[in-house]
Structure formats: structure tokens, C-alpha cells
Specification:
With 378 residues, this protein is α+β, with helices and mostly antiparallel strands. The protein has three domains: 105 residues, Butyryl-Coa Dehydrogenase, subunit A, domain 1, CATH 1.10.540; 113 residues, Butyryl-CoA Dehydrogenase, subunit A, domain 2 (Beta Barrel), CATH 2.40.110.10; 144 residues, Butyryl-CoA Dehydrogenase, subunit A, domain 3 (Up-down Bundle). Helix content is 47%, strand content 16%. The chain contains twelve helices and ten strands. A four-stranded mixed sheet has the order 1-4-5-8. The chain has a four-stranded antiparallel sheet with strand order 2-3-7-6, with no helix packed on it. A two-stranded antiparallel ribbon has the order 9-10. The protein is globular, with a radius of gyration of 21 Å. The two termini are 42 Å apart. The mean pLDDT is 97.
């Protein structure tokens, strides 16, 4: 595993702070970085060998994303390539797997976009209103999605839509279906409006105005889409926890280095307990979060489908990273606000995972209800 860490660090070393700062200032997508990761096979690490991927496990995927973020880079630009393909791998037809997965593995196709969230549904996925109506050999899609990342830099998109109206299903989780949409063929029936955010994160509103897609775009069985999407969330939570662990270690690395070199009143500031204790405290929280992440990854690879451990890993890692971010900013003082040091960019980026892809309050409610057997709070 150490060889993998070293290889990822070497690749990331080709893209310095200046590279990321330039992109952040003009809000550009890191094409060169994503291409380098693709050529190295890192984004295809979870694709089985039979489909042209390395066939690695989630532990290796965690290492890759952790090291990317620890280097100062931002893997959110491309992390979906790792876990979004799992929907196809687990629930797609043999024809869909053979058609798409090898092309994703070798970089000919990008599968970077997942369209679930809607403006009036938020985290209540069962309340989405985007519809896909079967008409002969096609489905006609109408509706709107929000906060859809990387859609303008992807060839394929996994879409969740309602194929049976909610008032016609026995359970609210029924009647939702998953489609694999070829974005190169949508034409004017799909409109994309970028959403400018506090970080350089390619996010969009997407409008479907009678978009027609072939019937064989359907993944698995019609009406089972909610369960298909849910099955991929455990991997997503574990991998994003790894990004937060990497962010936290980035802040600790930078804070400790600066505290040793910065001298005030004739001594390094790191000699002061008021500086060194918060750094040590934040570091231990990151290590604890990483341990929970590792346990969640081990359970995932053994076939466990519980959501508690992946959600707890995401919760703890995002909080630990945010704590480390604030400690680093305190350590650097005014210089932490200066863009040339890179901290303020990473500070903004690390804040994202407190609310996405699931808000931490929802993690608390999940653990309260499903682990502690407390009454449902909503």
C-alpha cells in the first residue's frame, strides 16, 4: 500500500499549489490533472479486470483519494468516476457493462455525473419529481436537477427519475428508476446552467425538456432505482471520508511545518503550547476518523450493507478536517488568509463535506434511529 501512496504523491507533485490557485481564480476544471489520474489508472481502480480496470478494492481507492487531497489537490473534480460506475457494475446488464466499463477504464469515456438532487426535494430523494415516461422504445424525461457536479465534463450521467407517480406506488421508495444517459446525444432537450459556488467545484442546474433516451438506457428493473442508488452510497461515504482525512492531514502537515519555522519573540511559535496543543489535538481526531473509515472499508469489502459505518466515517472525517482547517488558519495567522499560501482555498474546499453529499445532521438522525433505536425524528 505504501508503494501506491508514493505513486499517487509523485503524480500529484506534478501539479503544484500554483496550478490549483490559477484554476481556482478563474473557476476552470483541472483537465490536465484529471487526464493524468486517468492515464495512471487511478480513477478506474474499482473496475474489475475483466472490464479493463485494475480490479482493486475500496482500501486502495481510499488511499488514492486521501493522498490526492493530502497533496493539496482536490479530488472532488473527478472522484465520481470511482463510485458512480458501481451502479452499472452492480445493476447493469451484461451489454451495458461490456459497452461502457472498458471505455470508462481506459479513459475514452468519462462517467462523472450523478443526477439525483432536486430543488424541492433536497435530501428527501423519494420526493423527486423528474419523470421518465415510457413511450414505445424510448423514455421521455421532464424535470429539473440541482447541484449536479461535473456534468459539463462528463460523457455519461447516471439519472434517477420517477417512472411511476408517487401516488400510485405502495411505498414511497418504489417507482423510481435509474438511467444511464449519454450526454453526447441529449441535444437541446437538456439544458445546463452552471451554479457558481464558494469553491471551484463544477456544479450545475440541469433542465430536461422532453429529453428522449433509448429504452435500453434503463439500468436494472424499472421502479427499483432508489435501492440501486442507495447501494452505491456506502462506497461514496467511505471514499469521501478519505478525502476529508487527506484534507485534515494536509492542514496538519502545513501547520506543523509553519509552527516549526515561524519565529516570533525569538522562538518558534510551535514551542508554545497554545499553538502546538491544538495541532496535536486535531491530528488525533483525524487519526480516529481514519480508523473508523478503515473499519467501514473493511466491512464494505466483506459484503456488509449497513449504512451506519460509512455514514459515521464521513461525519467524523469531515468534522476532523474542518477542525484541522481552523487550527491551520490560526497557526498561520494573517498569512493564512493570503491566497499565495493555498490554505484559504483548501479551507473553503474542506467545508463542503459538512453538508454534502449528505448533511451531517442527517447522519446523526440515521445513527440515532438505526443504531440506537431512537424514534424517527422526521
Amino acid at each position: 500500500m505504501e508503494d501506491l501512496r508514493r505513486a499517487v504523491r509523485d503524480l500529484c507533485g506534478q501539479f503544484d499549489d500554483g496550478y490549483w490557485q490559477r484554476l481556482d481564480e478563474v473557476r476552470e476544471y483541472p483537465e490536465e490533472f484529471v487526464d493524468a489520474l486517468t492515464r495512471g489508472g487511478y480513477l478506474a481502480c474499482l473496475i474489475p479486470e475483466e472490464y479493463g480496470g485494475p480490479g482493486l478494492g475500496i482500501h486502495e481507492a481510499c488511499v488514492i483519494l486521501e493522498e490526492i487531497n493530502r497533496s493539496g489537490a482536490n479530488s472532488a473534480a473527478c472522484h465520481a468516476q470511482m463510485y458512480t460506475m458501481g451502479t452499472i457494475l452492480r445493476h447493469g446488464s451484461d451489454e451495458q457493462k461490456a459497452r461502457y466499463l472498458p471505455a470508462v477504464a481506459n479513459g475514452d469515456l468519462r462517467l462523472q455525473a450523478l443526477a439525483v438532487t432536486e430543488p424541492d426535494a433536497g435530501s428527501d430523494t423519494t420526493s423527486i419529481q423528474t419523470s421518465a415516461e415510457k413511450q414505445g422504445d424510448r423514455y421521455v424525461v421532464r424535470g429539473q436537477k440541482v447541484f449536479i457536479s461535473r456534468v459539463q465534463h462528463s460523457d455519461l450521467m447516471v439519472l434517477l427519475a420517477r417512472t411511476t407517480p408517487r401516488d400510485q406506488v405502495a411505498k414511497r421508495t418504489d417507482g423510481l428508476s435509474v438511467f444511464l444517459v449519454d450526454l453526447r446525444e441529449t441535444g437541446d432537450a437538456m439544458r445546463v446552467r452552471p451554479t457558481r459556488t464558494m469553491i471551484n467545484h463544477e456544479s450545475n442546474e440541469v433542465f430536461f425538456d422532453g429529453m428522449e433516451i433509448p429504452a435500453d438506457s434503463l439500468v436494472g428493473e424499472e421502479g427499483r432505482g432508489f435501492h440501486y442508488i442507495l447501494s452505491g452510497m456506502n462506497a461514496e461515504r467511505i471514499l469521501l471520508a478519505s478525502e476529508s482525512v487527506g484534507d485534515g492531514l494536509y492542514f496538519i502537515d502545513r501547520a506543523a511545518e509553519y509552527a516549526k519555522s515561524r519565529r516570533v519573540f525569538g522562538r518558534p511559535i510551535g514551542q508554545n503550547q497554545g499553538v502546538q496543543f491544538p495541532i496535536a489535538d486535531a491530528y488525533m481526531e483525524i487519526r480516529a476518523a481514519a480508523a473508523v473509515r478503515d473499519a467501514a472499508a473493511e466491512a464494505f469489502e466483506s459484503g456488509q450493507t449497513r449504512g451506519a459505518e460509512p455514514n459515521m466515517a464521513k461525519y467524523l472525517a469531515s468534522r476532523a478536517a474542518w477542525k484541522a482547517a481552523n487550527v491551520a488558519m490560526d497557526t498561520f495567522g494573517g498569512w493564512g488568509m493570503a491566497t499565495e499560501y493555498g490554505l484559504e482555498r483548501k479551507f473553503r474546499e474542506s467545508r463542503l463535506y459538512l453538508v454534502a453529499p449528505v448533511a451531517n445532521n442527517l447522519v446523526l438522525s440515521h445513527v440515532a434511529q438505526h443504531v440506537l433505536d431512537l424514534p424517527r425524528s422526521f
